[in-house]
Amino acid sequence: MSHPISPRVPSVFVPVRDLKLATEWYANLLERHIIPREHEDGIYIFDFDGTEVILDSNAWGSPSTIMFDTKDIASAYDFCAGQRYDTLTDVFSDEYISVFTVNSNLICQAHRLPETAKSKPAHALLSKIGHVLIHTDTLNETVEWYETLVARTAEPDSRFPELCCIRLEKGAHLLFNDKRFCESGKPVGIIETSDLDAALAHVQAKGATVARGMETRMGVRCFVFGDPDGNEFIVCQTDV
Question: How far, in Å, are 62, 89, 215, 218 from residue 212 at the CA level?
Answer without folding.
Answer: 25, 40, 7, 16
